[in-house]
Design a protein that fits this description.
By secondary structure, the protein is of the alpha/beta class. The protein has nine helices and 15 strands. It has two domains: 212 residues, DHBP synthase (Alpha-Beta Complex); 78 residues, Rossmann fold (3-Layer(aba) Sandwich), CATH 3.40.50.
Length: 325
Amino acid sequence: MTDSYSTPDIRRVTADPMGIARAADALSSGRLVAFPTETVYGLGADAGNDDAVARIFEAKGRPHFNPLIVHVAGISSARDLVHFDRRAEILADRFWPGPLTLVLRRKSNASLSLLVSAGLDTAAIRLPQHAAARSIIEAAGSPVAAPSANRSGLISPTTADHVCEAWSVESELGPEVIVDDGPCKIGLESTVIDLSETAPTLLRPGGIALEELEAGLGEGIRTSEIIDAPKSPGMLARHYAPKTPLVMNAKTAGPNGLLLGFGPKTRNADLNLSPSGSLREAAANLFAMLHKLDRRGMAEIAVTTIPDTGLGRAINDRLHRAAAE
């Protein structure tokens, strides 16, 4: 789906060779760039530049104990930064490029700012599937640290319009360049798997279902609880939240509320994540529809029940965190 919000923005470029070159030049000069991936739009900085990475935290108002995901253009770059074991090789071979982030032990000579790891001896690494994202990283000549391109804790952006809303042209903290390549295909952040310990652990459900990862790895993956010192983004108790209070597992909306539905049995919904009941379609629409409903300034956003299987697990994870106090 597309968003009706639109405004001229001198920072906004298309994902053509000129736009990619402008974005890469901004990254190389230590500035911030918003760019598309298959999951959500990211707010990127040169992952080896301490000052540039610090700009991400400043712009987002992000807690400094919340690590950043480092995006690379190829698996060889990932191997230069972290220690790959057998499990990492299996998952990377099957799911990279794609919406999977691996948390692995940093190499002592890794050309990464310590800020991306929030003081930990691990790093979260991803090889995105999105062609423009990889082209930008490759042209910049360095790995790119990139959380979602939104203010910390708010709804993640799945279009360039959402990014423009988050940072006005006059803002000194936001991205210098916004690369527009349309809506994100998946619309949910990457799945994050911690392989730095003996037992593989799911830190954040996302664009690849847990069942797929377990089948690929050939062993079970344990799940992680919400903690105060996370090893990856998206683990804080309240995250991805609209300004409007959100209620889960609702059948109807309360007074002056809006109903976000799912499936063919939903009646009188203001928006429906997937009228056909497709979890993939629902995942792609989730953040964009939350943005739309949040702008209406009503008393609450009520969301009908989402099946807690496959991608539904990731959708419910985002909704639980958005609804948290």
